[in-house]
Amino acid sequence: MDNAHIREIEEPAGHAGSPLASKATEAEEKEDWKSYTIFLLKLVIVVLIFRTFIFTSFNIPSESMMPRLLVGDYLFSQKWSYGYSRYSLPFNVDFGNGRVLARQPDRGDIVIFKHPIDETDYIKRVIGLPGDTVQMIDGIVHIDGEAVSLEQIEDFVIPVHGDRGCRYAQFEVRSEDGSAICQYPQYRETLPEGVSYNIIDLGENFQDNTPPVTVPEDRLFLMGDNRDNSLDSRFPAEPGRGIGLVPQNNLVAEASFMYWSTDGTAEWLKPWTWFTAARWSRMFRGI
Asked: Phi then psi for 226, rounded to 5 degrees?
């Protein structure tokens, strides 16, 4: 038997181009697609679990929490901090009027919650807990008749970008390099438990004096840190306006840390502005 005939006999039955080889290739491709689909499904499930029970993202739309939070800040917020209710879970999962694994916030916490009337997302600081009597007297918070500590510190300064000027023209000044800045009076407020944070108080305003309000069970008295630019528990709950005393069931999450911040000057068609608009020093900071 010559060599050519030997090679012909020893040629594998499923050589390239044969029906068996084609079927094997198709089977491998189907297996690859199956594995890829399973991977995507697992990824979707992990993301859903993450967003449902662990963290959610929130961006700051207004100046009501200046100086701590600025317009254009993006936050991750802990969903497990206060338990879960229909307000903190997606797809309107109904828990009735209660919370699962409920925990009361601490004074000074920054919380994300649903507005009691229109159920839009808001972010404020916890000032009054159930049983507290809260009152504003001459711009100073009083809890159970005692004034919280308030100390004036250096002014808060923020650059003016584009058409976003200062809310009140008298606080817009020029810096040493000639650029426009907003320069706001800033104070250090300290709650009875020792939690301290900075606030902005622009001076006398009608919301600086309020009647005493005793916070009922399962409610919270919340305020913005920008005291003269915040519709909060000092005002009755109205759609898009005041929030009144917020039910604890409306809590969504506790603000945790900042992962991105932009000054609003970026343009989609100019990719380099994505980087020049970024406020790098504010990223990956705890709240």
From this structure: -90, 85
Question: Tokens 């009076």 correspond to what residue?
Answer: 185
Residue for token pair 């528990």: 233
What does the pLDDT read at residue 100? 84
CB 135: neighbour CB atoms within 10 A? 19
Catalytic residue IDs? 64, 124
pLDDT in the model for residue 164: 73
Distances (CA, A) of 61 to 33, 125, 241: 42, 16, 14
CA–CA gap between residue 129 and residue 99 (Å, rounded) = 17
Give the whole-angstrom CA distance, residue 284 versus residue 287: 9
Residue with tokens 């207004």: 62
Q: How many CB atoms lie within 10 A of CB 23?
A: 11
Q: What is the mean pLDDT of each run of 10 residues along the chain (287 residues)?
A: 45 52 66 82 80 86 96 94 85 69 94 95 98 97 98 96 80 89 97 97 92 97 97 94 95 95 90 92 92
Global pTM value: 0.82
Domain 60-286 has CATH 2.10.109.10: yes
Count Cβ neighbours within 10 Å for each residue of 62-88 and write b for 16 or more, e otherwise: bbbbbbbbbbbbebbbbbebbbbbbbb
